[in-house]
Give the backbone structure.
Amino acid sequence: MDVLTAPPSVERLDPERINTELRACPRLPSLGSINSALRELLNADQRYTSQISDVIRRDPSLTARLLRLVNSVYYGITTPVKSIEEAVFYLGVRQIRQLAMVTPVIEDFQRLAGNSPFPWREFWQHCIGTALLTGEVLSCTQALPDEADYVAGLVHDVGKIAMAAAFPVHFAEIRRRVAGGRDDLLRIELEVLGISHPALGALYLRSHNLPDIMVESAQFHHEPEAARLYPQVVAAVQIADLLVRYARIGISGNPEKISALAWQQASGWAILFPQQAEAERAFARASLQGYLDRLPSILEGLV
């Protein structure tokens, strides 16, 4: 195995130093309790639009995202929607629930990333796009996706955010080398910092006692076959991540181009469809391609 060395200007860190710096990184409070009042209300047997609207009004950022989404090209509404009640009617319960989760998480992400130079808005689009597609991938397997699966997709690249927050000098050097196109992202991260973003993301989430489904999504989204507890969810995240990168929706921070063959032959397919015929996989891929065509319009309304 090659001995990886960092340039003299940037010190490659040992595991103890990485752990120490990462512990000083702020936690993401939204991942511990995501808009519990709204979630409970949406899960209730009686869902009254007026009650849901009252809860949404307490959060100006959520209100703005909700109105922006419902008035996006995706919904094709000719007369702009201005009332929250009307927006709730158009979006439906599941969409509202996802919107309620993405708003505080992205705001936490933004605070954590700070002022590190990076196209963060496009990165948030990549994260949300992966979250949405994770649910679509799981739907193709007849498994009913829930919000845990959605959040797993949302946080899959949290290691990059933690890297920008805890190791800004190393993050900048990694970005510089990535722009030079000399090597793949994971190898550059190991060479410069001493840890890759999947391992760093898992370390960060585990240090804040967050659920295993999030930890495994962060750690194994490039190799779902290594996941022990939630291989199906991680497989869905892998395929969703590749699909969003293939369509060049947002920016993941990894400039490697993804071909149609790369996402169609990802290792996650064997986990999601272990016994099923190629015809069923082909149907799933066609369904995902259709959703992918609509995704940019959805994201424009979200972030």
In short: The CA atoms of residues 110 and 120 lie 8 Å apart.
